C-alpha cells in the first residue's frame, strides 16, 4: 500500500517523509539562489557604478560581463592562501566560516511566496515559518558580527583589529535603531512571524502607516551591512581593507559572499516588513491571480533588485561619513526618533482600538507631533552648534597662544616641536653695527672681535 | 524541536560549503615562501609589534557595548508588549510609557555625561 506521507519510487517505500524531502529541496534551492544572487549582485553593482561614473565596467567575461564575478571567484581560489605569522591560526580559520553561515541562515524565515505545489505536495515558499521569525533573524545576524570581530582580532595586525572593532561597534549601534523600528510593525501586525506580517499587509503596506519606522529601518540597514556611505570599517584611506586586510584566497571570498548575502537579507527583511513581502504592487494586485502560485516570487525578486539598486545608488552618490558623525546619527538621532515614534504609534493604535479616532483626527495629531519633534531636534542641534563654535573659539585662542610660543622654533615648521619642548634658549643677536660694515670673510667687526677673543 | 530541522539542514549546507571553501582555498593555491608576505600588512613599513594575546583598543568601545546591552534589553521587553498590544489596552500603554521614560532618564544621563561623544 502506497503511503502518501513517504517518498515512494516505483512502489518502493523509501520511508523518507515528504516534508523532509521538500525541506531539503527548498534548502538547496535557497542556498543556490543566494549564491547566484551574490554573483549577480557583484556584477550588477560594478556595472551600475560604472554607468554612474561614466565608465564601461566589466563586459568581457560572458554576455555583458555577467560571468565576471564567477571568474573572479575562480581566480581567488587559485591564489595563495596566506596565514600571517602573527595570526591566531584556529580563530583565523574559523572567522570566515563563522561569518558566512549566519548570513545563509538568516534567510531561512523570509517568505518568497504563498502556498505552491511541488511534486503534487502543497507547501509554502518559505524554508521555515517560525512564530518568532524576525527575532530569529536578529539573533542569527548578531552571530555574524562574531565572525567579523574575530577576523579582526585573530589577524594579529593593527588595521584589521581597528577595522573589526569599528565594524562591530557600528553594527551593534545600528541594531538598536533597527530593532526599535520593528516594534512598530509588530504592534500593527500582532505577530513576529514573517509570514504573519506579510499576511497582515494585505490591505496596505506598512510603509504608509509606519513611514518613520520604515525610513529608520532603511537607514539602519545600510549601517548594519557596512555599506557606503557607512562603510567606515573598510575606509581604505584609514584602515586599508578593515577586518579582512590579512585575508586572501577563498577565505576572503567567504567574507565577500557574507557581505553580499547580508545585503540581500536586509533588503528582503525591508520588503517583508514594510513593502508587502511577496504581494504584488498596486496596479498588478487588481488582477486576482497576481498573488497566487509562483508569480509572487517575481514581485519579490523585482522589489529585491530595486533595493539592491538603491544600495548601489547610495554608494555611487554619497561620500563616506566620519566616525563621530556616524555614531552621532545612530545614537542621538535614530534612537530617540524611533522611541518617540513608537510611543506615538502606540497611542494612535490604542485610540483606534477604542474607537475614539478616525482618519480625520489622525492627520492633525500626527502632523502636530511631528512638528513638535522637529522643533525639539532643531533646538538640540542649535544648542550643539553653539557649543561646538564656543569650543572652537577657545581652541583657536589656545592654538594662537601656542603658535606665538613657537616663534623661536620657526612656527613649528618644518620640524614640529616635541611635546613639552620649550622655546630655544638662543635669541637672535641684535645687529649692533650697520650691515655695510661687513669684513672680507662675511662677518661683522663685532663677531670678528669675539672670534678673536676665543 | 521539529520546527528547527529546516534551519539545521540549511546550516549544514552552508557550513559544509564554508568549510569546503576554506579547505579548498588552502589546497588549490600556490605556496611560495617569502618572509615579507607573512608579516602583518602595514602599507610596507615594518609592522607595529603586537603584544601577545592581541593588541589594545580604546576603552570607548566597551562603553558602546554596554550601552548596546541596555538598549537591546529594552527592545527585548518591547517586542512581546508590541505583539500583545491589542489585548493589553490602556494598561499596557501606560506601563510601556513608564518603562520607556525610565530608560530615557538613563539615556539623557549618558548623553549629558558625554557618553555619546565620539571623536
Describe the secondary structure blueprint for this structure.
The complex is a heterodimer of chains A (454) and B (119).
Chain A: E1 6-9, E2 12-17, H1 18-52, H2 68-77, H3 89-105, E3 113-118, E4 121-125, H4 133-154, H5 158-189, H6 194-200, H7 211-224, H8 236-239, H9 249-274, H10 282-285, H11 295-317, H12 323-354, H13 359-405, H14 445-453
Antiparallel strand pairs in A: 1-2, 3-4
Helix pairs in contact in A: 1-9, 1-11, 2-9, 3-4, 3-9, 4-5, 5-7, 5-12, 7-9, 7-12, 9-11, 12-13
Chain B: H1 5-28, H2 60-83, H3 85-112
CATH architecture call of chain B: Up-down Bundle
Number of domain modules of chain B: 1
By CATH, the superfamily of chain B comes out as: NADH:ubiquinone/plastoquinone oxidoreductase, chain 3
Assigned CATH class of chain B: Mainly Alpha
Uncertain parts of chain B: none
**Count of discrete alpha- or pi-helical segments spanning 4 or more residues of chain A:** 14
Instruction: Give the amount of beta strand of chain B, in percent.
Output: under 5%
Cα-atom radius of gyration of chain B:
25 Å
- Report the principal-axis shape of chain A: globular
- CA-based shape of chain B: flat
- Give average pLDDT of chain A, whole number: 81
GO molecular function, one term (chain B): quinone binding
Subunit structure (chain B): NDH-1 is composed of 14 different subunits. Subunits NuoA, H, J, K, L, M, N constitute the membrane sector of the complex.
Membrane topology (chain B): Multi-pass membrane protein
Catalytic activity (chain B): a quinone + NADH + 5 H(+)(in) = a quinol + NAD(+) + 4 H(+)(out)
Amino acid at each position: 500500500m502506497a503511503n502518501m506521507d513517504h517518498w515512494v519510487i516505483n512502489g518502493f517505500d523509501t520511508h523518507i517523509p515528504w516534508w523532509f524531502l521538500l525541506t531539503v529541496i527548498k534548502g538547496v534551492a535557497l542556498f543556490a539562489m543566494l549564491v547566484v544572487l551574490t554573483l549577480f549582485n557583484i556584477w550588477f553593482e560594478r556595472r551600475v557604478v560604472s554607468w554612474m561614473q561614466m565608465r564601461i565596467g566589466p563586459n568581457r567575461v560572458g554576455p555583458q560581463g555577467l560571468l565576471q564575478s564567477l571568474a573572479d571567484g575562480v581566480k581567488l581560489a587559485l591564489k595563495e592562501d596566506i596565514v600571517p605569522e602573527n595570526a591566531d591560526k584556529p580563530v583565523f580559520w574559523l572567522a570566515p566560516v563563522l561569518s558566512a553561515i549566519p548570513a545563509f541562515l538568516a534567510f531561512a524565515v523570509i517568505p518568497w511566496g504563498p502556498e505552491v505545489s511541488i511534486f503534487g505536495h502543497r507547501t509554502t515558499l518559505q524554508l521555515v515559518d517560525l512564530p518568532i521569525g524576525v527575532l530569529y533573524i536578529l539573533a542569527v545576524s548578531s552571530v555574524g558580527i562574531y565572525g567579523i570581530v574575530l577576523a579582526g582580532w585573530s589577524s594579529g595586525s593593527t588595521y584589521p583589529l581597528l577595522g573589526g572593532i569599528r565594524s562591530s561597534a557600528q553594527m551593534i549601534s545600528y541594531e538598536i535603531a533597527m530593532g526599535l523600528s520593528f516594534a512598530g510593525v509588530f504592534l500593527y501586525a500582532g505577530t513576529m512571524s514573517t509570514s504573519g506580517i506579510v499576511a497582515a499587509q494585505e490591505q496596505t503596506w506598512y510603509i504608509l502607516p509606519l513611514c518613520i519606522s520604515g525610513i529608520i529601518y532603511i537607514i539602519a540597514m545600510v549601517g548594519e551591512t557596512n555599506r557606503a556611505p557607512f562603510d567606515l570599517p573598510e575606509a581604505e584611506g584609514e584602515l586599508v581593507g578593515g577586518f579582512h586586510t590579512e585575508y586572501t584566497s577563498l577565505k576572503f571570498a567567504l567574507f565577500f559572499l557574507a557581505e553580499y548575502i547580508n545585503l540581500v537579507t536586509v533588503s528582503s527583511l525591508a520588503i517583508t516588513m514594510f513593502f508587502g513581502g511577496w504581494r504584488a504592487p498596486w496596479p498588478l494586485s487588481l488582477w486576482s491571480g497576481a498573488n497566487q502560485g509562483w508569480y509572487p516570487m517575481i514581485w519579490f525578486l523585482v522589489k529585491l533588485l530595486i533595493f539592491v539598486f538603491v544600495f548601489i545608488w547610495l554608494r555611487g552618490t554619497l561620500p563616506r561619513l566620519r566616525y563621530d558623525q556616524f555614531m552621532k546619527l545612530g545614537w542621538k538621532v535614530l534612537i530617540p526618533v524611533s522611541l518617540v515614534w513608537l510611543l506615538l504609534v502606540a497611542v494612535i493604535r490604542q485610540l483606534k482600538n477604542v474607537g475614539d479616532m478616525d482618519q480625520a483626527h489622525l492627520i492633525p495629531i500626527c502632523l502636530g507631533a511631528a512638528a513638535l519633534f522637529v522643533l525639539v531636534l532643531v533646538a538640540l542641534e542649535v544648542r550643539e552648534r553653539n557649543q561646538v563654535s564656543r569650543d572652537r573659539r577657545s581652541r583657536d585662542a589656545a592654538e594662537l597662544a601656542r603658535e606665538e610660543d613657537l616663534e623661536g622654533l620657526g612656527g613649528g615648521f618644518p620640524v614640529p616641536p616635541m611635546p613639552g619642548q620649550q622655546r630655544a634658549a638662543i635669541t637672535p643677536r641684535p645687529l649692533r653695527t650697520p650691515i655695510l660694515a661687513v669684513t672680507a670673510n662675511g662677518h661683522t667687526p663685532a663677531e670678528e672681535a669675539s672670534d678673536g677673543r676665543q | 524541536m521539529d520546527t528547527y530541522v529546516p534551519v539545521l539542514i540549511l546550516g549544514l549546507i552552508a557550513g559544509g560549503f564554508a568549510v569546503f571553501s576554506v579547505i579548498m582555498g588552502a589546497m588549490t593555491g600556490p605556496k611560495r615562501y617569502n618572509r615579507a608576505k607573512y608579516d602583518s600588512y602595514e602599507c610596507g613599513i615594518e609592522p607595529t609589534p603586537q603584544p601577545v594575546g592581541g593588541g589594545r583598543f580604546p576603552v570607548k568601545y566597551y562603553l558602546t557595548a554596554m550601552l548596546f546591552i541596555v538598549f537591546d534589553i529594552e527592545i527585548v521587553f518591547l517586542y512581546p508588549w508590541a505583539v500583545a498590544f491589542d489585548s493589553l489596552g490602556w494598561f499596557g500603554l501606560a506601563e510601556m510609557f513608564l518603562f520607556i521614560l525610565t530608560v530615557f532618564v538613563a539615556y539623557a544621563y549618558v548623553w549629558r555625561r558625554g557618553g555619546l561623544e565620539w571623536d
